[in-house]
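tool=predict chain=A
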Amino acid sequence: MEEEKRTVRAVERALDVLLCFASGHEWGLTEIAGRVGLHKSTVHRLLATLEDRGFVTRDAATDKYRLGLSVLELSANLSRSDDPSVVLLPEMEKLRDQLSETVSLYVRDRTERVRIQAVQSTQAIRRVATVGARLPLSVGASSKVLLAFAEPAVRGIVMSDTAWPTQLDREAFGKQLDDILAAGYATSFEEREPGAAAVSAPIFNRSGKMVAALSVSGPSNRLTPDRMHEHAPAIIEAAHRMGTILG
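tool=predict ok
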């Protein structure tokens, strides 16, 4: 049993190393060790194994690591027929053209939300959304949607996690989630960063399961609270169409 635990832990560490490349094109050994919280010698052994299997490659000139061809080989076999980031892209573009703001798609991954698709606004001053970005579930319109419309057990697990901000009152936040559940959408105004605002609605498939949160974001001087509430019906309608497309 102890040997099995060590083996699983080694896999977890290797995956943590790979996930570093979700937020950067290349990393040095010291940088990776700092990000995953492991000794450089341990990370070096993990990288050597990943490099041997083609999952990372090392640039001899810079002594930095990048993703290898094995990652591309795996992604080539990823099913696109039911991938929301692919299937819903045309509808996201329609919503962007309708509202002239950046449109994003988020899913929950444990205690975080991940942006899996984004369509940038064409306006000169716009909210730029990076695909693959991981954000906390404790703040932001999409975070609140992903929690408000999740199963009660999920909400409890996330809000009782040690990563939950201690300064954020759970009872008050839970009441806010209940209000969002009743309204059908959520807004955020300069919650996560100054000058940014967003409005979000849930996407349900035909079975009634929430699969993602649809978000429209932009500068707070343009996307005011009144404007967000005006946009809400269009966003809810778009989310409904997307859910029908997903089946």
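Strands lie at 27-28, 56-59, 64-67, 102-109, 112-119, 134-136, 186-189, 196-204, 210-219. The chain has ten helices and nine strands.
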